Amino acid sequence: MAEHEGGPYVPADKNLSEITPLVIALSVVLAVVLGAANAYLGLFAGLTVSASIPAAVISMALLKLFKGNILQNNAVQTAASAGESLAAGVIFTIPAMVLLGSWAKFSYTKTTLIALFGGLLGVLFTIPLRRSLIIEQKLQFPEGVATAEVLKVGDQGGAGVRHILVAGLLGALFKLGAGMKLWAHAAVFARNAGGATFYVGSDLSPALVSVGFIVRLNIAILVFLGGALNWLVAIPIYTKWFGSGASGNAEAIAGGVWSTQTRYLGVGAMVVGGVWALIQLRNSLFSGITSNLKAYKKAKAAGKDSAPRTERDIPMQIVFVLVGLSLIPLFLLFHSFTEKVHIAAIMAVVVIVAGFLFSAVAAYMAGLVGSSNNPISGITIVTLLSGSLLLLGLGLGPNVGPPAAILIGGVVCCAAAIGGDNMQDLKAGRIVGSTPWKQQIMQIIGVAAAALVMAPILTLLHDAYKIGSPELSAPQAGLMASVAKGVFAGDLPWTMIAIGAAAAVVVIIVDVWLEKTGKKFRAPVLALAVGIYLPFELSVPIVIGGVIAHMMERALATKTPEFRTTGERNGLLFAAGLITGEALIGIFMALPIVISSDKNVLAIFGTHDTGKFASLPGMVLLAGLSYLLYRVSTSDRV
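and the corresponding structure tokens:
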């Protein structure tokens, strides 16, 4: 769907209030809350989702009390979604500092600097690309278009916040029950047979089902296939041919082989996928920069007010100055680790160059597949692997090198996460008629608000659950730590990485064929790679959510367009509520655990999460919530 018929929903010659003290206050609160929720989800599941639509619905419900307009609602969701996207960049990388042993706890100053300047660079780098990617190339930006439609419906009297609230309560109660040890958090079956180890399992999480619902069946299937290839094919073959190298039960053996060997298949696949994304984007990168510079020179020659309100970005000279000034704190941060001026300077330059390239890749991919499907993990792996090799070549040793590489990856990951999300928001803004430079200001506000609270949130979760534990596995951060450490120690399983890379080439060829033959099903290699390196029990509920989304689409296919739009929006809001409720209660549950230093402090009825049938209550309840998600998504009741 393009812009509103005849132009933006709010015409360029109509000036509505966009940024007010109330808008800023609400934006800060939502950026912090949704950022915290996404931080927990990412550490738990290794995946994050866009919060633009939930933020828009919450904003509409609250600003309606103060007669807020559609542009104010869009400003709030812009800042709020920037906050939750920054959380993804942080939790994919910064916890690796603790896993490496470089930090005993999360440094507030250093964590905040990485998040703040990584996010700021992500905002700045997308400014010169807005015209090319949104106006000239006319990419889809599915979540941006969906957010704009939600905003327009809300402006015309629609509703939907009820679905978020009900689902949030149900998701919170489910998480609380698991936290009280009333049932096991996962259903697992593992067995040693014929010299091979077999493992299947499923996490019992409404949030993961909701993630699958949001990303839809195509992506969910690829994530599941990646997990199945690893856990049902690679691990049994490896244990059969090479042995486990460890003793213990089948579940422990499978986990050990995955963590030390087979998940590096995913690393190889992600490296190839990240490089392939750059190759695909080589023309768009240059055209985006040149297009914006031409537009800037034309507007400058004609006068500052010559461009329509809906075409005014933050001026390029300000962008250049802010990028240049960002080099100073980044250099000081890097120097505090390396204590070498020339290496710190090189790291700062690498961050700027890689940050721009990968922010552009993320922005382009968001236009193709949406923010929730954006290959941030693959981008970060490419950055981390190349950065580690560079630092190794510059003479850094195994003590300083890995954390220094993580710092590079952290800044670039934050920039890329923000780049993809921000372009979705700018697309929504173009449809509804927002002023781009005001949206970009709100993006900076959202980044700053979330950056200031990331360190305390990470500290709280680490103290309660221990990052890297089964309760908070932090799969991406663990992988980043392993890659950085492995490069400097020289013990990376390069054979596994090479096999994964070769498999990725095959998948890319298949995907190109699917595209050329016009097939609806596609095979983006990075989705498969994500499944390979995730614990298998996370992939199962994701594919269940994808199946529910497919069932919804089939049920709505015979309905009117208005019915379909309402049903899909209801499902999306309900899924977002389940994610938010589960994540927020997970954070709140951390407080009594930290205070008491007892992980079982909430098990007031005794521990019932062990035993043969310990997962059964959770399975029944999750089935009920899954059915409710389907019913809500196939209803036109708002």
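(Above: one complete record from the training split.) The chain has 22 helices and two strands.
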